[in-house]
Design a protein that fits this description.
It is a single chain. This protein has about 450 residues and is α/β, with parallel strands linked by helices. It folds into 3 domains: about 140 residues, Alpha-D-Glucose-1,6-Bisphosphate, Chain A, domain 3, CATH 3.40.120; about 140 residues, Alpha-D-Glucose-1,6-Bisphosphate, subunit A, domain 3 (Alpha-D-Glucose-1,6-Bisphosphate, Chain A, domain 3); about 80 residues, TATA-Binding Protein (2-Layer Sandwich), CATH 3.30.310.50. It contains 14 helices and 18 strands. Strands 1-5-4-2-3-6 form a 6-stranded mixed beta sheet, with helices on both faces. The protein has a 5-stranded mixed beta sheet with strand order 8-7-9-10-11, sandwiched between helices. Strands 16-18-17 form a 3-stranded antiparallel beta sheet, covered by helices on one side. The chain is globular and about 65 Å long.
């Protein structure tokens, strides 16, 4: 028996799997091997010899971390299939009904110096908080040991599987969809969607102009992608394009740019898709971050907005529990359950393009009846130790500002589950009040945090 007795005091799971700075806990080779071992033991409760899929994005640290995962999995007799660089939703699609579990090595929209893990079950769904706690329990209380196997695990290179997701994406739109004379600017964040999105659009006849499609291992999300849309906005206007499409590093998020350079976030995308009846029922799911104006716009269409905690796994959980069909986040995670179990930037963009062609309307026209309250979102640096130390003071400041604001708007203050940041949002009926509220809130929180 091989035993690696390692003590880790801090829980490793956040809002979306595990994430952090490469080289520091929990993003180290040693710990990835431990996590893989724990995940294998968890899955082997139900499957004697499980098959796992491992995928990754374009960060330079992915290769070395992949080797650590392999070591932890094969020590438990797991059959490991390596699919290489593929969007996270592509991995989810491949895992569903083909594998017993899967792991994607990615830090999503974070900078290249970060990395992380996203975990999926046999249905291609992200793990629930209770499942994550059970894996954490293996990490905390077990010896992370592996039994001796007569037939240890194997590693299979399965790069050809990527073509299955590529073809699947194209089947999600009508066979008659043809995008000739449609000019599209894409920004793939130098991430895992950089090849697939451009090729699919070209296959459908679109003219494609590229940004963020030259990954080198260190430029993922570097002033490009869905969290940095400035270049895309400029390019759409400059090229007189019909639409701009921005993915994040692992292509599970998408935001859109209209012909005037305006940003359309997840709220706007959900509104557009609701006009194509993709919700199929009277409810759409989003999070606490969604705009009040968007909620009222849906109400005018007879659609109820149901809010969850922040994180697309919570949106998916609500969709699944209630058998609803459409949900997402303002950040651009959009889940269309008929097509998949997680946010999918490529498939979402294709659905919007199809709505535009079928209705013969531009993005601006599709959103003409969708209103937004002015909203400002800022991030304050926040180490976890400071949050624990000043939690009560932060809560007191937040409640005081909200009481002062009353029913004229709302504020939301929450720690990020993926970065060492405090998310601070103000949303009011007019711009001046929103700006003054946010300024006051930021000043008081900065004083607390020092």
């Amino acid at each position: 028996m091989i035993t690696n007795k390692i003590e880790y005091s801090a829980p490793c799971f956040g809002t979306d799997g595990i994430r952090g700075k490469f080289g520091s806990y929990p993003i180290t080779e040693d710990f990835f091997s431990v996590v893989a071992s724990a995940f294998a033991q968890f899955i082997k409760q139900d499957v004697k010899t499980p098959k796992f899929l491992i995928a990754k994005d374009t960060r330079e640290s992915c290769d070395i971390l992949e080797k650590a995962l392999i070591a932890g999995l094969v020590s438990h007799g797991v059959e490991v299939h390596l699919v290489g660089v593929i969007p996270t939703p592509g991995a989810s699609y491949l895992i569903n009904k083909r594998f017993d579990a899967g792991i994607v090595i990615t830090a999503s929209h974070n900078q290249h110096t970060d990395n992380g893990l996203k975990f999926f079950n046999a249905k291609g769904q992200k793990l629930s908080p209770s499942e994550e706690r059970r894996i954490q329990n293996y990490i905390d209380t077990k010896d992370n040991s592996s039994e001796a196997y007569d037939a240890p695990g194997t590693v299979i290179y399965a790069w050809k599987l990527r073509a299955k997701y590529y073809e699947y994406c194209k089947t999600t739109v009508s066979k008659g969809l043809w995008l000739a004379k449609v000019k599209v600017v894409i920004d793939c964040a130098n991430g895992s969607g950089w090849q697939m999105l451009q090729q699919i659009l070209k296959d459908l006849g679109a003219t494609v102009i590229k940004i963020g499609c030259s990954p080198n291992g260190t430029n993922i999300n570097d002033r490009v992608g869905s969290t940095h849309p400035n270049k895309l906005q400029t390019s759409v206007v400059q090229h007189k394009a019909h639409i701009g499409i921005a993915l994040d590093g692992d292509a599970d998020r998408v935001i859109l740019i209209d012909r005037n350079g305006g940003i359309i976030n997840g709220d706007g995308i959900l509104y557009i898709l609701s006009q194509a009846n993709m919700h199929q029922d009277a409810s759409i799911v989003s999070t606490k971050m969604s705009n009040i104006g968007f909620e009222k716009s849906l109400e005018a269409l007879g659609i109820r907005l149901v809010r969850t905690d922040v994180g697309d796994k919570f949106v998916e959980e609500a969709l699944q529990k209630n058998n609803w069909h459409l949900g997402g986040e303002p950040s651009g995670h959009i889940i269309i359950r008929k097509f998949g179990n997680t946010g999918d930037g490529i498939i979402t963009a294709l659905q919007v393009l199809q709505v535009m062609r079928k209705t013969k309307k531009s993005l601006i026209q599709l959103l003409e009846n969708c209103c937004y309250f002015p909203q400002i979102l800022n991030n304050l640096p926040l180490k976890r130790a400071l949050l624990d130390k000043h939690f009560l003071k932060i809560a007191k400041v937040t409640m005081a500002v909200q009481d002062q604001l009353g029913d004229r708007g709302r504020i939301l203050v929450r720690p990020s589950g993926t970065e060492n940041l405090l998310r601070v949002m103000s949303e009011c009926k007019d711009v001046a009040l929103t700006e003054s509220t946010q300024k006051d809130l930021l000043a008081k929180l900065s004083e607390v945090l020092g």
